[in-house]
Design a protein that fits this description.
The complex is a heterodimer of chains A (111) and B (111).
Chain A: E1 4-5, E2 11-14, E3 19-25, E4 30-38, E5 45-51, E6 54-58, E7 61-66, E8 71-76, E9 85-93, E10 100-101, E11 105-110
Parallel strand pairs in A: 2-11
Antiparallel strand pairs in A: 1-3, 3-8, 4-5, 4-9, 6-7, 7-8, 9-10, 9-11
Chain B: E1 4-7, E2 10-13, E3 19-25, E4 31-37, E5 43-50, E6 53-57, E7 64-70, E8 73-78, E9 87-94, E10 101-102, E11 106-110
Parallel strand pairs in B: 2-11
Antiparallel strand pairs in B: 1-3, 3-8, 4-5, 4-9, 5-6, 7-8, 9-10, 9-11
Classes of the chains: A mainly beta (111), B mainly beta (111).
Chain lengths: 111, 111
């Protein structure tokens, strides 16, 4: 079993839809949770960074962490064609430098 | 003003050759990383340096050797390149192990 599981998709939605992206993990030591967006032939770009359980909102993006279920989510409201990219979840423990990434979910938003 | 820059962006070389990839960051971060992303987009850490000290050294063939001349630079040298080394290599940096910022990647093709 991988430490971080993420459905690779692809996920295709119409413009304006609410998108839900998810990851599950097995290591209860993870405390920091991140979402990265990666456009084709570009480097991953940090979208959201959260600590422990709870919600964090930034514009159209909301990150949720449920440590009791070992489950994290990224919601994208009013999705746009420019949101079409691969979304990678990532996580690490306290005091550690090693970040574990999910496999990434490829998202297509159709105009 | 590029935060994490890698050179070259593209590298095509023959099996058996030796090549180097260079990385520089101007963010004032103290930790730098090398990641490998395979054809399925899976991002896996290879090495990490904190204040020029090697702190993460994953199970990587010893043909791969990182070198950090100072906190702002981390290079990756690969000896005797093999077909399986073809991938995108990303450099990243962070401050005290917090969220990582990635470069644009070096697409290595071994023929």
């Amino acid at each position: 079993q991988k430490e971080v599981e993420q459905d690779p998709g692809p996920l295709s939605v119409p413009e304006g839809a609410i998108v839900s992206l998810n990851c599950t993990y097995s290591n209860s030591a993870f405390q920091y949770f991140m979402w990265y967006r990666q456009y084709s032939r570009k480097g991953p770009e940090l979208l959201m960074y959260t600590y422990s359980s709870g919600n964090k909102e930034d514009g159209r993006f909301t990150a949720q962490v449920d440590k009791s279920s070992k489950y994290i989510s990224l919601f994208i409201r009013d999705s746009q064609p420019s949101d079409s990219a691969t979304y990678l979840c990532a996580m690490k423990g306290t005091g550690g430098f090693k970040t574990i990434f999910g496999a990434g979910t490829r998202l297509f938003v159709k105009a | 003003d590029t935060a994490v820059s890698q050179t070259p962006k593209y590298l095509v070389t023959q099996m058996g050759n030796d090549k180097s990839i260079k990385c520089e960051q101007n963010l004032g971060h103290d930790t730098m990383y090398w990641y490998k992303q395979d054809s399925k987009k899976f991002l896996k850490i290879m090495f990490s340096y904190n204040n020029k000290e090697l702190i993460i050294n994953e199970t990587v063939p010893n043909r791969f050797s990182p070198k950090s001349p100072d906190k702002a630079h981390l290079n990756l040298h690969i000896n005797s390149l093999e077909l399986g080394d073809s991938a995108v290599y990303f450099c990243a940096s962070s401050l005290r192990g917090a969220e990582a910022f990635f470069g644009q990647g070096t697409r290595l093709t071994v023929v």
